[in-house]
């Protein structure tokens, strides 16, 4: 791939001369789809990114949002590492973690949690398993080593990822004092540009342009030089050094080195401040001899940060870097002119920074609106179908995955993976209601992000902090069937996940994955997921503060399903949340299920049931009053009488109920409605939950006028799920369910 | 009187240890390994993590850093020393405690909760428990399988230097309850003195009541006055 003729003409016209080889390579990378979003930016204005809690919206390394106390901020970012993970699953996935963590550091935040959403080809294929095992191992290796817990995420298998798996990683960072916030906007001419971290080698050359093409059949061997190799030990040192630099207020602005390496990071940094730079490339600390200007400029060696530093502070920055055994070089300074790079006295780049960053024209692409599938349902035996759906790798337990992730380091994890959403303890942020005069946050220590434990002596309850609920994922079966409605469902389901744990949605970021946008049907599907996600997030009043777009996820096996991964964060007072697992003592209610509440046939489109048995159908109609449902659910989840709450989605009520049963708690449930038995049990209409409660009347009263509540049975201590659906009775004890649900563990151990 | 939590490059449970100790009223601070041990150190924690990225072998590089010699001297003077997870690997690599911790039977990293049976309740680290009591602690390691020669293990067992063994919820020490293949299910051992101990499970992750059970507090009580 090289600069297209049209782009070359634009660049030549702007510069008034032919670009140098280094400039041509820089433009090629910065104007690639991966960096410049040429095909997607025209669509992204659909997202509502503003809100009263939003401190820094889209366009920086990560977004910054205030928690309810007002003085504690979180950062939220998401990134894809799809193509590298196909070529080299271990290193590709590992460096994806590294990249999103450095995006967090750039804002002055300390990374406190990760979530991974992974998508692979059919689980029965050997190649899918090879990629799956490698990716999980890479995330485990990198995330565990840097001491950032991986607390939630999703894993899905679908045939159309066979030639192109997806690895989407999101990260939450914590800024416990607004003064610590840093952005990627260069502040002042005369500041020094300082590069801290790993030495630069020839690894990852041209990664941004590699990520902007379809994967070739021989990508595994041909493209290996474009995959970077990560070093989590250095990343951990960088995390601590960054924290020390922020502690001492030494950083004016920061940007991590990711796509397009040093050239990308430094040009974007100064462009955002409408400034320029003068850089001497030979000053960069290097790992290999005889590197040329282009290599130094574009290599994607990992674990590097670019900082803007006042001249007086440069020595102190170098001292801190040295303390953490990190390389450090002063590579140039911020100017008011062009973005200029010299190498051994020769000018190799001299172009306006803003033109480099924003000069790429957008693509105006044709799209074809996707059609809804016709209804063509299979004949099945209900018990066989139950076993196939509950035993599918898509709906099965992901314990094999998250057991390999350290999900408890940093001692914040109050609800671990395996539930609807993770809950993290943010002790630094006083909960809204605990502060009678609204000023309690001032008492909180701001010096050390880890010392926010409220003092014992103050006699207050220990649970005075804010609980952060975190949910991430998408369902390719949904968006493959109906891109727009499926994406709306993804947003509603993630919001339901946090509300089921008593949290109110605060904000979200998205990772939009699509195939080759030059194919009108692919672009039409992509447009569908963008609009669907945007519409539902706006409806639920969840500002979408950032994201990532990954196109050209296309191979000779065809395009991937349009995949809108959403990482959504909610907040609540305190960290207690009802579990998904039954206590065995309460009444069971299904809330907001259209098939149970009315004569509506909800549609089986996008369901695991159809994925297992073949056939097609329209995607379920969504319930009404969705914002009110989410808000009410967050409230009901924290009722004293609430024993358990579980989101009903993938695999329908069959999977939801199966997941709630344990050796010590069972359920006796009758599901009735006008729809067929298979529809009642397996439809995947989102925005539904199962609640176990000791006060069913209170739940019904709370949802009055918001969502229908059906009393379907009771939990007990039988350890058995006894299910009657229409005329059919099914009985499974906890160990049978556990066997079905442990398919991934069984197959891979 | 302050406990030093020694930070190596790659340590990552260091702040967690300080926070957990504060929870039970023990003053602790982070000590960067190159800065040396403060003179008034009342105890030492080698925290979990991946010191030096686990290069060579887990704990091997850190065990050869100068601060470990200072810790060894302090230990000989009776200063309590606790190694947790990667800190346990540092303890065994430096010879402070017997045996070695090597790759899990599964050959994978495992983060989960396990049951432990208290084998010797007559040490500073277990005085809060009864002998035979079952406690629940998290593990998070890829190299936690305790290995030692048969003769040495026999000596250790006869000298009552095994602190904890992996067991099931009822306290039965079984192979099924052994998460990593440790010899005789050993999860933690004492050094030459009972003021020196290492264990693979994380007591500091089970010490904060606002996020869960606090079975680990008893181990940390070894630093209390």
Automatic annotation (TrEMBL), chain A:
Cellular-component GO terms for this entry: cytoplasm
Domain Phosphoribosylformylglycinamidine synthase linker, first and last residues per copy: 1-37
Low complexity composition-biased segments: 436-451
Annotated positions binding Mg(2+) 1: 79, 548
Subcellular localization: Cytoplasm
Residue sites binding substrate per the record: 80-83, 102, 228, 300-302, 550
Entries under PANTHER family matching the protein: PHOSPHORIBOSYLFORMYLGLYCINAMIDINE SYNTHASE SUBUNIT PURL
The family this protein is said to belong to: Belongs to the FGAMS family.
Protein name from the UniProt record: Phosphoribosylformylglycinamidine synthase subunit PurL
Annotated organism of origin: Halorientalis pallida
Automatic annotation (TrEMBL), chain B:
Region (Disordered): 205-225
Gene Ontology MF: a single term: phosphoribosylformylglycinamidine synthase activity
GO CC annotations on file: cytoplasm
Cell location: Cytoplasm
Catalytic site: 85, 202, 204
Listed pathway(s): Purine metabolism; IMP biosynthesis via de novo pathway; 5-amino-1-(5-phospho-D-ribosyl)imidazole from N(2)-formyl-N(1)-(5-phospho-D-ribosyl)glycinamide: step 1/2
Classification via InterPro entries: Class_I_gatase-like, PRibForGlyAmidine_synth_PurQ
Keyword field: ATP-binding, Cytoplasm, Glutamine amidotransferase, Hydrolase, Ligase, Nucleotide-binding, Purine biosynthesis
Gene3D superfamilies linked to this entry: 3.40.50.880
UniProt-listed GO biological process terms: 'de novo' IMP biosynthetic process
One Pfam family named in its UniProt record: GATase_5
Reaction equations catalysed: L-glutamine + H2O = L-glutamate + NH4(+); N(2)-formyl-N(1)-(5-phospho-beta-D-ribosyl)glycinamide + L-glutamine + ATP + H2O = 2-formamido-N(1)-(5-O-phospho-beta-D-ribosyl)acetamidine + L-glutamate + ADP + phosphate + H(+)
Enzyme Commission code: 6.3.5.3, 3.5.1.2
Summary of the function given for this chain in its UniProt record: Part of the phosphoribosylformylglycinamidine synthase complex involved in the purines biosynthetic pathway. Catalyzes the ATP-dependent conversion of formylglycinamide ribonucleotide (FGAR) and glutamine to yield formylglycinamidine ribonucleotide (FGAM) and glutamate. The FGAM synthase complex is composed of three subunits. PurQ produces an ammonia molecule by converting glutamine to glutamate. PurL transfers the ammonia molecule to FGAR to form FGAM in an ATP-dependent manner.
The protein's assembly and partners: Part of the FGAM synthase complex composed of 1 PurL, 1 PurQ and 2 PurS subunits.
Protein name as annotated: Phosphoribosylformylglycinamidine synthase subunit PurQ
